[in-house]
Each structure stands twice: as C-alpha cells, then as structure tokens.
C-alpha cells in the first residue's frame, strides 16, 4: 500500500501544476523510518549512560534536565514535553530538587503555576548529558552530509510540531485513554 502525504516543502515533484510537490511512501519505508527513529533514540540514550551512572540519574531525570537546559518551563508543559503524567513529573522534580539541581518558583503572572529552573549545578549536569548526545549526533550528521541534516531536521521538526498541534487542537476526550467496555 502507498501512503500519500500532504504537500510539503522538502518533497520532489515532476508536476507542480498537479497541486504542488507530493511524497509517496510504501508501508515498509514508513516502518523502516519508525524503526530508525526508535534506534536513534536508544543510541542517544546510550550515549549518556556513563554520565547517568556517575550521577545516579534515571532516563526521565536526565531528559528533564536536558529539556530545561537554556529555558525554564512550567511544570505541566515540562510534563507534556517529556510525556510524563503529573504524578511522575512531580516525583522526578522532587528527586532533582532534593539534589539542588533545580528549583520550582511561582509564576509571576499566575500564582497557581510553578516554573521549573535549573540551578548552576543542574545546568552543569545537563550540559554533560547534552554534550554526550551532541557528540553522537554531530558524528552522524558529519557522515550524512548537510543535505541529509537539513532533511532530517525538517522531518523530525514537522513530526514533533504536527504532533503538538494535534494534541493542542484535540478535544479533551481524544487525549484520554479509551475506557474499557464492561459488561453490565
């Protein structure tokens, strides 16, 4: 089966008059893309193994630190970015705050919201983790070449942006897990 995606800027077409560029992919090509994304994520995670062991960090804690590197975030936005439940996010934040790697402060515009900031120590640990992943990614980018880097960045940013847009625009019931059917 062939999947026809909507027109996009990085696809090629021999017929611009037919409504712009189109990209046609077979299911096996899409499955390969998914598999490669999973493997790439696993390799980036593995690149941080030494730092995570040295600092006794879980992957969720490491991702949290890296996500906060350079910009503070509200707790709920951070949880959404990491794909964690509110309870899991709070447990992760409690552990990192106990190590003095981050602080939660009231939002100056909304006292109900907490903004999460890295401390200097937390930023140093986050930088170690990010450096390990950057090194691994930079090596792959150098081997692939600049056109491949641009294409990869475009595909991944389109995927993440479209997912964020779908989540933000979806009705509340669409974001909830399906309820099991129960016989009366």
Summarize this structure as a short list of keywords or feature phrases.
two-stranded antiparallel sheet; globular; 8 helices; 61% helix; single chain; mainly alpha; 5 strands; three-stranded antiparallel sheet; disordered C terminus; 184 residues
What this model shows, in words?
This protein has 184 residues and is mostly helical. 61% of the residues lie in helices and 10% in strands. The chain has helices at 27-47, 49-55, 59-68, 75-82, 86-98, 120-144, 146-169, 172-175, and strands at 2-4, 24-26, 73-74, 102-106, 114-118. The chain has a 3-stranded antiparallel β-sheet with strand order 3-5-4. Strands 1-2 form a two-stranded antiparallel sheet. A hairpin with a 7-residue loop joins strand 4 (102-106) and strand 5. Helix 1 crosses helix 6 (120-144), helix 3 (59-68) packs across helix 6 and helix 4 crosses helix 5 (86-98). The longest helix is centred in the C-terminal third of the chain and has 25 residues, at 120-144. It is globular. The model is unreliable at 4-18 and 176-184 (pLDDT under 50).
């Amino acid at each position: 089966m062939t999947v026809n995606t909507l027109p996009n800027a990085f696809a090629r077409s021999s017929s611009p008059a037919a409504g712009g560029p189109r990209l046609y992919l077979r299911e096996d090509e899409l499955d390969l893309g998914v598999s490669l994304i999973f493997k790439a994520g696993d390799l980036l995670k593995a690149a941080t193994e030494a730092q995570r062991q040295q600092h006794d960090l879980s992957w969720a804690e490491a991702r949290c630190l890296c996500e906060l590197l350079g910009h503070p975030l509200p707790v709920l936005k951070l949880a959404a970015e990491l794909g964690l439940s509110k309870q899991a996010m709070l447990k992760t934040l409690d552990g990192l705050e106990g190590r003095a790697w981050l602080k939660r402060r009231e939002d100056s515009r909304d006292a109900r919201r907490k903004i999460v900031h890295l401390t200097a120590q937390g930023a140093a640990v986050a930088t170690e983790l990010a450096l390990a992943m950057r090194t691994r990614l930079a090596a792959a980018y150098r081997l692939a070449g600049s056109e491949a880097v641009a294409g990869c960045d475009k595909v991944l940013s389109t995927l993440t942006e479209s997912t964020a847009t779908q989540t933000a625009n979806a009705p509340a019931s669409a974001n909830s897990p399906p309820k099991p059917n129960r016989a009366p």
